[in-house]
């Protein structure tokens, strides 16, 4: 479970976040929507402890993150738009490497199994990652999250640039992790996916969360209209 309490972030005299409150419970997929510069990545970076908030607090499973940052990071996996993997290592070798950094050692069969169950074709798992498509690299990220038993998944536009089939496969994997009780926070510009995959949708604008809703409350057309209205509304 992930919570933000009154998160504020200033970069110089620019207020990037103006008091964000949000909760992502176990088994929820919270999709953050908002125009470029709304503050989505800043929010995710604070959750990841990449940057510190100017004010406010992050709670991980109810505990302030700064109380035990190592433990909090152990629970999390981050998949950005372009997952950084070692291009000359295979999928199996990358997975092994990143798991070992986190103190986890799996045997070869388990590593292979994790990649295959994350949708990577078995004839690719021993090939160098430089031969992988973007969708295949993102699946290595999912395999890492599953192998780590991560309970929190933070995603920053993970399917941008993926073709519809690859994007579909990736979102199916997110839905499976949701069934396993993972708390997922995903920044996205894809309203359709936010509606179809998300359990909750937050619309950010100029550093504020201007709307939060449960995705079953709204159909896709109304979400699109609401989003566009929020974007043009003068405050
Ligand atoms: N390190 C930084 N230094 C100064 N300003 C920053 C920094 N990081 C972000 N900002 C500013 O904070 C605001 C929020 O940026 P952020 O990257 O969080 O937006 P975003 O919603 O993720 O946008 P996008 O959809 O383009 O990824 C922007 O005005 C951005 O210019």
Describe the structure.
The protein is an alpha/beta fold and 235 residues long. Helices cover 37% and strands 26% of the residues. It is built from eight helices and ten strands. The protein has helices spanning 40-47, 69-75, 91-101, 108-117, 134-147, 164-179, 191-197, 220-232; strands at residues 2-11, 14-24, 29-34, 55-60, 63-64, 76-79, 152-156, 183-187, 200-205, 208-214. It has a six-stranded mixed β-sheet, sandwiched between helices. A four-stranded antiparallel β-sheet has the order 2-1-4-5, covered by helices on one side. Helix 6 (164-179) links the parallel strand 7 and strand 8 (183-187). Helix 3 (91-101) crosses helix 4, helix 3 (91-101) packs parallel to helix 5 (134-147) and helix 4 packs across helix 5. The radius of gyration is 18 Å and the shape is globular. The mean pLDDT is 94. Bound molecules: adenosine-5'-triphosphate. Adenosine-5'-triphosphate (ATP) is lined by residues 11, 14, 16, 34, 36-42, 187. One of its GO terms (molecular function) is ATP binding. InterPro entries: AAA+_ATPase, ABC_transporter-like_ATP-bd, ABC_Transporter_VariousFunc, P-loop_NTPase.
